[in-house]
Amino acid sequence: MLLRTKHFGEIDLDDSKIIRFDGGILGFEGFTNYTLLYDNDEGERSDISWLQCIEEPALAIPVISPFLVKEDYNPEIEDELLKPLGNINEENVVVLVSMTVPADIDKISVNLKAPFIINSESRMGTQIIVENSDYEVKHYFYEKLKALKAAKEGR
Q1: Strand partners, 68
Q2: Nearest to 62 by CA among 45, 44, 39, 43
Q3: β-strands 109-110, 116-119: how paired?
C-alpha cells in the first residue's frame, strides 16, 4: 500500500505494519489505523519514532519508550482494558508514550499518564489512562535525554 504522509512523503507500507486502535486514540477517536515510522535512512527502530495515522496524512505523533525516560515505569492497568489486544506477554508487548517537543527544547516532555499499549503479534493497540497518580501528563526529561545521547556517543 502506498501511504501518503505530511512529514515523510510517500511510503510503500506493507499491510503487516498496520496497527489497529479500535477505539482510536485520545483526541482522534475517528482514526483507527496507524503504523510506526522511524526517522532515519535505514528504517531501523530508533529511540524516537512516529505513530503515523494511515487515514490522515498530517497526523503523526512522536513516541518513545517510557523506560528510556523513567526506568521504573510501571503503569497500573486493569487487565480488562487489555483483553481486546489478544494474549499479551513480555515478548509481544510494546509500550510507547507520546512526546511534546516545543520550541524551547528544555521543555521536552512525555505523557506518562496515557501510554500506547501494542500487541506486536496481533497488531492491535490501545491508549489507556493509567491509574498511577504519580505519573504526569507532562513529564519533563531534557536532562535525561542529554545523558542518553552522551552515553551513546561514549562521553
Answers
A1: none
A2: 39
A3: unpaired
| Residue found by looking up cell 531534557 in the block | 142
Q: How far apart are CA 7 and CA 26, in angstroms?
A: 21
d(CA 137, CA 98): 10
Distance from the Cα of residue 19 to its chain's centroid: 11
Number of C-beta neighbours around residue 76 at 10 A: 10
Question: Does the model's pTM come out above 0.90?
Answer: no
Q: How many domains does the chain have?
A: 1
Is 57 a residue whose pLDDT tops 60?
Answer: yes
Chain segment 81-124, per-residue pLDDT in tens: 999 999 999 999 999 999 999 999 899 999 999 999 999 999 99
Q: Could you list the residue range(s) of the whole structural domain that residue 30 is in? A: 2-152
CATH number of the domain bearing residue 22 = 2.30.290.10
